[in-house]
Design goal:
Elements lengths: L6 H18 L3 H33 L2 H32 L4 H22 L1
Helix pairs in contact: 1-2, 1-4, 2-3, 2-4
């Protein structure tokens, strides 16, 4: 079974834009920065789903194919962690006051991810 991003996940994530605008406090630049963070968090979720698929694939293959799938799994894990580091670092250097708000958005998005995965897989 291939895991994919569902319409429900995208709908809840789009509702999370409201929380980003509220957390920005009415500043248009900060709102755009937090919305960009949400877009990268959705990309992070897509990377997670590919990571899970590759990990499952590496468990079913043998020999060189399994090694290639395992390498791809480690690359996706690295990419996923780097996305999170880039989000926090870029917001920190843009405006330090938004860092806590980004962590709040990450928590909201994580809740959406858990609900999406739990209900669909």
């Amino acid at each position: 079974m291939e895991k994919k991003i569902t319409k429900k996940f995208l709908m809840f994530s789009s509702l999370n834009v409201i929380s980003a605008v509220v957390l920005a406090g009415g500043d248009p630049k900060d709102s755009l920065a937090l919305i960009a963070v949400l877009i990268v968090l959705i990309l992070n979720h897509a990377t997670l789903l590919r990571l899970i698929s590759e990990a499952m694939r590496s468990m079913t293959l043998n020999g060189d194919n399994a090694k290639r799938a395992l390498r791809k799994t480690f690359f996706l894990m690295f990419a996923k962690m780097m996305l999170l580091v880039i989000i926090v670092a870029s917001i920190y250097f843009y405006k330090q006051e938004l860092t806590l708000k980004v962590l709040i958005l990450m928590i909201f998005q994580l809740i959406i991810q858990v609900v999406s995965i739990k209900n669909n897989y």
